[in-house]
Amino acid sequence: MSTAPIAQPKQHVASTPGVCGGRPCIVGTRIRVVDIAVRSQSGMSPDEILNDFPHLTLGDVYAALSYYCDNQKTIDEQAVDDERLVEELRQRTGPGPLEEMLADPSTQIHKDSKT
């Protein structure tokens, strides 16, 4: 009986300083575990999540969901901190150019414009 060597398990999730603020991401991407978890919580299946991120594997999606389940409290706290930081920056800097343009009633955006 022949025994083929078993491949080492692939590391799907890592936290890398300087990549997405050190938040856990799918290895080799900037897709955060929380990005996968939020889609799952909104009712998307792993296959539907792959439609949003076709370069991932099903294993990547399930690994991210597993990682989230194992670290839910920390990841949720990080997400709240991130939202708080975004809101603080918005308060300090005001609306960006796109927000200003969209808020201006004299600006018209035509969906069927060719220009």
Helix/strand/pairing category:
mainly alpha
Low-confidence stretches: none
Strand content: under 5%
Count of DSSP E strands?
A: 2
Radius of gyration: 20 Å
CATH superfamily: Winged helix-like DNA-binding domain superfamily/Winged helix DNA-binding domain
Instruction: Give the overall shape.
Output: elongated
Order of helices and strands: EEHHHHH
Biggest beta sheet attributes: 2 strands, antiparallel
Share of helical residues? 40-55%
Strand order of the biggest β-sheet = 1-2
**Tell me, what is the CATH class?**
Mainly Alpha
Number of helices: 5
CATH architecture name: Orthogonal Bundle
Question: How would you characterize this protein structure?
Answer:
It is a single chain. The chain is mainly α. The protein has a single domain, classed as Orthogonal Bundle (Arc Repressor Mutant, subunit A), CATH 1.10.10. A two-stranded antiparallel sheet has the order 1-2. Helix 1 packs across helix 3. The mean pLDDT is 89.
List keywords for this structure.
115 residues, mainly alpha, Arc Repressor Mutant, subunit A, two-stranded antiparallel ribbon, 2 strands, elongated
Provide a concise account of the structure shown.
The chain has 115 residues and is mainly alpha-helical. The protein is built from five helices and two strands, in the order ββααααα.
